């Protein structure tokens, strides 16, 4: 592929600063709603902020919703995208396809209700309602505006049998169960699996995916008794244990016999060493938290002389959207954990 | 294992702040030279600072050697370990075994010349000469002092057929070739491999390890014509190409046909996207640079809809020290690239 064509495919032509970098690395994108021949314009109806990003913004502003709203608005206006400069993360959005360029390969049609499955950190975004309908107190942000998809972006047409907010919440984390399924499949015969943050969205879907992939013993690690009760009722794990994921020795003690695969779905920093300590020699850790520190993971494993394979959770695995929605539909325990997080 | 025993094995009893965390997560360790029954005391003769750490310190102080020396001394005095608070990385050290506790499992004997293969970020360290013999202008730091090894630390006895400074430089990066060998072995029949930062220590050893593991096409990516000439002369790669590793589109263009395995050995931030773009669908990227950003890697792959497996380079793989020294001994091209970096 010629380099110019690769550039357009990836959206490099939308980068304002610094020129010639990829959209995610850019400090500022051009969110002009007029589309090129291979682009798609979405009429945005809702943003779903990345959990680590929302948590950081909320903590930085002492939980003051108005201040959080102003901060998000400021980021989008200055950067042309919702890219939290502190956490480096974004989230995703839903909306309706408004216009499709004649050479777009995405197969979308005007009027399709869609969720973008590429990060907000690289999606040109314009907000036109000042976020007036959002109280700044939750990750889901009702809004109006426009977003641009490139030729190599990914968007899922929203199903008509799942409420939109639920579908959004599921699709936001659909990379985790898809990657978990793949890792468990490759880990041999009935590998034991522990999930940190098991009562959350990505955690419960990852547990269900691991079960589907014929995992052996399934351990759900949660942070308190309330979550433990909910996860036990959901029936997704063989063992449910309570531990502070940022306390490595507590995690190791709670999990007990080290497992073959550990999936990290907590959205707080400092879970790297517990995950490594909970994993058996020769096992695999998959990090899905955007709060993961690369150096803490690499040096932690080395420092503990732990022969574990550590994966950077890739948000994209082919078929991830369909897999996650399917797990949601046919797993009552997943629905029981996710629905209350959405219906507010 | 009882939790108290696990604590001692990992060195938790040496943590001063905050109490109860693992040594790498600690802000301050106790470098008291008196050892416990399962500990080992090393008489330190030399530190080898992590490349990313030294680069950051040097840049922060405008290349002023005296200021860099004062900064390193300040870090060690305040933290009880050489743990760069900005990069999160450390390095390793060499010395001579001075005292071995009666219950140490490491098999060391007083008088053994050793290199520690666990990071300085978790090794209790005391410097007693004020770094008076170091000019602050290179990663290798001659010094005097003491360091402590725990039961689960790793130290390699230095070979007598390789100069000490060379062995130190090789052992510092020995995780990279060992992990590269493993990944290439698992990647199927004669996978093509690209190494970013191929003329550096970990880069050239990784190329040699990939060749040993029966890789197919081997591409060495370097930053300038000088490195290209040196790498071509070393004969370690089939193709040697020049590209700025932080320019993803330049890396993709230089590598050409995407490869099955990409190994990232550059010590500057921003190489994540180029590595992903250079890698074929279904391929693997191994990140060895401590300058790697977890979120840039995860979101970059997602944003480019790239189905690649991304590994956090684990500094520990069983047998890594012997493998790296062996590659150095029997690969003239590796010696030709590493020797000039050490003999200064």
UniProtKB/TrEMBL annotation, chains A, B:
It comes from the Bacteria. Residues 13-159 form the L-erythro-3,5-diaminohexanoate dehydrogenase N-terminal domain. InterPro entries: GroES-like_sf, KDD_N, NAD(P)-bd_dom_sf. This is L-erythro-3,5-diaminohexanoate dehydrogenase. It comes from Modestobacter roseus.
């Amino acid at each position: 592929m010629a380099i110019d064509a690769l550039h357009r495919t990836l959206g490099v032509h939308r980068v304002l600063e610094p020129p010639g970098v990829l959209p995610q690395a850019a400090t500022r994108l051009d969110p002009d709603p007029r589309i090129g021949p291979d682009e798609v314009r979405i009429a945005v109806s809702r943003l779903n902020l990345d959990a680590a990003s929302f948590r950081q913004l909320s903590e930085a502003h002492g939980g003051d919703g108005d201040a959080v709203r102003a901060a998000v608005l400021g980021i989008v206006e200055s950067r042309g995208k919702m890219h939290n400069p502190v956490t480096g993360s974004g989230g995703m959005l839903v909306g309706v396809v408004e216009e499709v360029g004649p050479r777009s390969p995405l197969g979308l049609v005007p009027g399709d209700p869609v969720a973008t499955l590429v990060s907000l950190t690289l999606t040109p975004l314009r907000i036109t309602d000042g976020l007036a309908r959002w109280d700044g107190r939750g990750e889901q942000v009702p809004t109006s505006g426009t977003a641009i998809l490139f030729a190599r972006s990914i968007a899922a047409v929203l199903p008509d049998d799942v409420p939109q907010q639920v579908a959004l919440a599921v699709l936001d984390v659909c990379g985790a169960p898809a990657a978990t399924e793949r890792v468990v499949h490759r880990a041999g015969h009935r590998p034991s699996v522990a999930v940190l943050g098991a009562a959350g969205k990505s955690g419960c879907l990852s547990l269900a995916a691991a079960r589907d992939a014929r995992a052996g013993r399934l351990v759900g690690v949660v942070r308190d008794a309330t979550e433990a009760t909910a996860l036990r009722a959901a029936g997704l794990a063989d063992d449910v244990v309570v531990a502070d994921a940022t306390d490595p020795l507590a995690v190791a003690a709670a999990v007990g016999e080290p497992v073959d695969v550990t999936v990290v779905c907590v959205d707080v920093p400092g879970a790297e060493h517990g995950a490594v300590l909970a994993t058996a020699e020769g096992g695999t850790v998959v990090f899905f938290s955007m709060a993961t520190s690369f150096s803490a993971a690499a040096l932690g494993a080395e420092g503990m002389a732990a022969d574990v394979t550590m994966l950077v959770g890739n948000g994209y695995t082919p078929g991830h959207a369909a897999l996650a929605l399917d797990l949601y539909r046919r797993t009552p325990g997943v629905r029981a954990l996710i629905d209350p997080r959405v219906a507010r």
